[in-house]
């Protein structure tokens, strides 16, 4: 019996007694303990009616038990569906309604809100708190450790991760065992991870970056993760001396650079810093090297594709580029309209093909078809060029997307909610430079004549509908939106107008 992903990650730990996770207080969870925990939780999942192929939707704080729940779901043949802890019940209702999970696991604090949502979808509901308590673990306690791992082939689904869309409707990206494992093994190799590594894990575990890239690599290499609940510059500075590698979004690095005690001595022994999920400004790259002597290794990925390209481990890591295609991954720059490859150095649509590319969007065959070329290349929606030395540069986005602190925000989703408010004729949502988050969200609203509408009123009205990080940090009112001759809103003009809005905001420490 094989389960492609689970067997490779935790099926037979090479050193069972070794620490897989080390917590902030120094307590450790061994590989054997993690394996046992996944057995107990997998038993609980089966007892709750989770069958192979069933979705398990999870909105919980980062904890070892939450990680065990991911691995246990895979072990039980289920499909893990992680959800951002910032999502409101309104947002969760959509995901649960769309994915129809057999089980929803939420924080005890949100149980009352989530219960009717789970009920409507016919799903069981259990809780898991950040300290590992809750009804899921109570059930798991009574289960045996030696769960018979459910057989899964490479093409079976291991996870569905929702990504927002330009139409405002989120799409579930279906990722197979092979998608996840092939990318993990490639990255272990490319980034030279070994059992000697200690990864400082400060990313959230509801996205590809923290869940798959960081966690799966540690497991596949038999390494150790220092597992912190979230990014906290004080804690990172305290624990860097005990680490060999760290993965982050650019905001982590700009925040560290804002700290005078982040210096060369602190990181002299470090082997690797990687960055992704959002563009790393070339100036951050340079400042980081000046301060620490380390060159951040920038790579490029997507929920739908895992990691696509990486700067070289050995060799020149170039600021402002995302490096070369990973082994086995094909990248081409194509004419957005025809899909025909453009000449080297020209800008076009970044398209990708390889074992890392997902199986399609959950129950959206037409959407899936429209985002793949007939020869199997996936259209990323990013614009780029490949330079004479083969490095990929991301130069923009064909999709209307804001990336704030590494989280994707689709303006359309917010505009639909703003447009629905009383007194609003129409709206445009834009991202403008933000010193801490890279981009900050701004709403521009055309009110009805004489409407009694204020910035504070708008912010209050959307509070329960949208995750906090998606809510516009500022709202402006205008008589009309600038449009081109085709009637399309010229967001570039709005961005130009508000470009300095957050310039004087402090970088967070
Ligand atoms: C928090 N806030 C934000 C963000 N995060 N606002 C805009 N953008 C954000 N990203 C707001 C909160 O709503 C709150 O607002 C205030 O900031 C403080 O909240 P807190 O939770 O304390 O913030 P924080 O802990 O400082 O979080 C910032 C963060 C976090 C550490 C940068 O956002 C983060 O960990 N980001 C990483 C995202 C990530 O992992 N992305 C990977 C996905 P108020 O005070 O007004 O209430 S992309 C991916 O996986 C692809 C495949 C890839 O390539 O990697
Ligand atoms: P997500 O949908 O959260 O997986 O985000 C994927 C998107 O993040 C990509 O399509 C890019 O637009 C962006 N992204 C990821 N890594 C980088 C990077 N290193 N530089 C610029 N953009 C990036």
Overview of the molecule:
By secondary structure, the chain is of the alpha/beta class. It has 16 helices and 24 strands. The protein has helices at residues 4-11, 31-47, 64-75, 89-99, 111-120, 135-141, 177-190, 208-221, 233-239, 250-257, 264-267, 282-292, 365-370, 411-419, 455-462, 491-497, and strands at residues 19-22, 28-30, 55-59, 79-82, 103-106, 124-127, 157-163, 171-176, 198-201, 224-227, 245-248, 272-275, 297-302, 306-310, 324-325, 330-334, 348-353, 378-386, 392-397, 402-404, 407-409, 424-434, 438-447, 474-477. The strands form six sheets. It has a nine-stranded mixed sheet. Strands 4-3-5-6 form a four-stranded parallel sheet, sandwiched between helices. Strands 16-17-18-19 form a four-stranded antiparallel sheet, with no helix packed on it. Strand 22 and strand 23 (438-447) form a beta hairpin. Helix 2 (31-47) packs across helix 3, helix 4 runs parallel beside helix 5 (111-120) and helix 10 crosses helix 12 (282-292). It is globular and about 65 Å long. It starts with a helix and ends in a 12-residue tail after the last helix. Bound molecules: methylmalonyl-coenzyme A (MCA) and adenosine monophosphate. Residues 203-204, 207-210, 230-231, 249, 251, 276-277, 301-303, 404-407, 437, 468-469, 508 line the site of methylmalonyl-coenzyme A.
What's the story with the biggest beta sheet? 9 strands, mixed
Strand order, main sheet: write it out. 2-1-10-9-11-12-13-14-15
- Poorly predicted runs: none
N-C termini distance: 49 Å
Total strands: the figure is: 24
Query: Gyration radius, to the nearest Å?
Result: 23 Å
Structural shape: globular
Strand content: 15-25%
